[in-house]
Amino acid sequence: MSTIQVPGLLSFTIAILVFFAGANLNRLIPALTRWSIPEAVTGGLLAALVTLAAYEFFGIEISFTLAARDMLLLYFFTGIGLNARLSDLLAGGKPFLILLAATLAFLVIQNIVAFGMGKVLGLPQGMAILLGSTSLIGGHGTTIAWAPIVSSRFGLTNALEIGIASATLGLVVASLVGGPLAQYLITRNGLSGPKDEELTIGVSRDTVRSHEDDVSYISLLRTLLVTNVAILIGYALHEIILDAGINLPLFVVCLLIAIAMTNSIPILAPSLPWPTHTRGLALISDLSLNVFLAMSLMSMQLWGLSGLGLSLAIVLAVQTLAAVIYIILVVFPAMGRNYNAAVISAGFCGISLGATPTAIANMTAVTKIHGAATIAFIILPLVSAFFIDLANAAVLGFLVR
After folding, report:
1. Spatial contact of 152 and 300, defined as CB atoms under 8 Å apart
2. Neighbours of 229 (CB within 10 A)
3. What is the pLDDT of residue 89?
């Protein structure tokens, strides 16, 4: 077995090629676009299959350097914050609380499903913890943090491998199910988005096709400057927060800094150009999200799933079914049965089975076709990237005891 470590710039370049491969495949297979499968997901999964083939047939393990991916995550969430005006935040108050309550309830349900399936399948003690909110709502980061504790507590020597495999498979399923689920809800209920409202992230497919997405280098540099300042402040504040003993993700800090800036600086300095809802910010956010997602999916080591057997696939299938039923019967009605509710449903599929960026990618794919859903992009990241992490940590602390 030989290993190829792809350096950072080449990894970034390959991710761009992977995105274009996905875009071309979506054009060749119209159903992928119709069901709102993001181009980065299509290309990323294709690339992951290529690396799997290299591993299985040629004995070559390909690993990518992902430092650029982590920076793109900061640009992406900072862009969301820069678009979050106070009026939008206030409008998101009640929907935010409803979505938070629905997500907290599903966190409990997800662990009940995991433990129930563990009993039915006779899985080793402790394994069920890794097949619930640890790996699915929590994702890879939470899995890496809690797997050693589960391993020590229950003597499960392959805890990390099980958790990573579950998180990886959940990410794939979330990427493939969210868009079609939203499309089903939109079609079934005759819904449509606003025609005259700017998208929160990216530009619509019609605009891209008509080549109306040109921006000047001045506006683009101005947007990059504001974004970089917000990220730099986020880095500094994050260090202070960590020193205070609060474990808050860096991208959440950058998101909150950007929200504070976009709701204060334009008021204090009204003559200063500001990037909120500009084409430049939309394009930077779109680029960051798509390349981030392409890098995340193309770097998945799918061969890690092969040794974990049928039990993992069965549990993940049941978890997926539980998530879809919960979204249709609880989340969509609770959020108002309207277009925003359908977009949030696509995002909820992402946060319940995959990760926050997957949720945003699902929602972006839907809004590019059907129209903007501003409130969805405001409330979902706050729920999934902050409050749920805290609740999940509390639940997992109870379970490992």
Report:
1. no
2. 15
3. 64
DSSP string, 287-326: HHHHHHHHHHHHT--GGGGGGGHHHHHHHHHHHHHHHHHH
The pTM (predicted TM-score) of the whole model is 0.78
Dihedral angle sign, alpha carbons of residues 107, 113, 119, 122? negative
Rounded distance, CA 292 to CA 215, Å?
22
Q: Cα dist. 291→39, 99, 202, 252 in Å?
A: 10, 28, 13, 19
Helix or strand run (H / E) with residue 365:
helix 356-370
DSSP state of 385: I
Reply yes or no on whether the pLDDT at 101 is more than 90: yes
No. of H helices and E strands in the chain? 20, 2
| pLDDT tens digits for range 111-130 | 999 999 999 999 888 899 99
AA letter at 101: A
Q: pLDDT tens digits for 198-228? A: 665 655 555 544 444 457 888 899 999 999 9
